[in-house]
Design goal:
Elements (H helix, E strand, L loop, with lengths): L2 H19 L6 H14 L6 H15 L11 H14 L11 H14 L5 H13 L4
Helix pairs in contact: 1-2, 1-4, 3-4, 3-5, 5-6
């Protein structure tokens, strides 16, 4: 299982545990801190950028959902996994991210660039250029 596969599996475990403790219902507001913590722990990238990317994902894909009680869906979790793959210099599931996602991620990388190790920043910039983020 890849690191992204393990991450996705761990997200499903969080959701399952939440449903077991709450009459079969999963409430995003109760699991969001666990999801964020899992996301940030699942990458070797310095903490600032993963936190910013998680906030972008949450704002774009969760808080705009017509039915937040159904979140996070497998589609939105897949996007979060693709963002995690980007942070870890993997091309896994990159097709799940839109052009707007890449542009926003590019802006977040620019904002956090001074706090990123040069080798990580170079890898990210190569991916972002290939995806048309700049």
């Amino acid at each position: 299982m890849t690191d992204i596969g393990k991450f996705l599996s761990d997200v499903e475990k969080i959701k399952k545990h939440e449903r077991q403790n709450n009459s079969g219902k999963c409430d995003y507001n109760r699991i969001k801190n666990d999801l964020r913590s899992l996301f940030e722990r699942s990458t070797s990238c310095p903490i600032g950028l993963p936190g910013s990317i998680f906030e972008y994902w949450e704002t774009t894909y969760i808080l705009t959902s017509p039915d937040i009680s159904e979140e996070p869906t497998s589609d939105s979790i897949g996007k979060l996994g693709a963002m995690l793959a980007f942070l870890d210099n993997s091309d896994e599931d990159q097709e799940l991210l839109t052009n707007d996602d890449w542009k926003e991620i590019g802006q977040l990388v620019n904002y956090e660039a001074e706090d990123l190790p040069v080798d990580i920043l170079q890898d990210m910039m190569m991916i972002l250029v290939s995806k048309g983020a700049y």
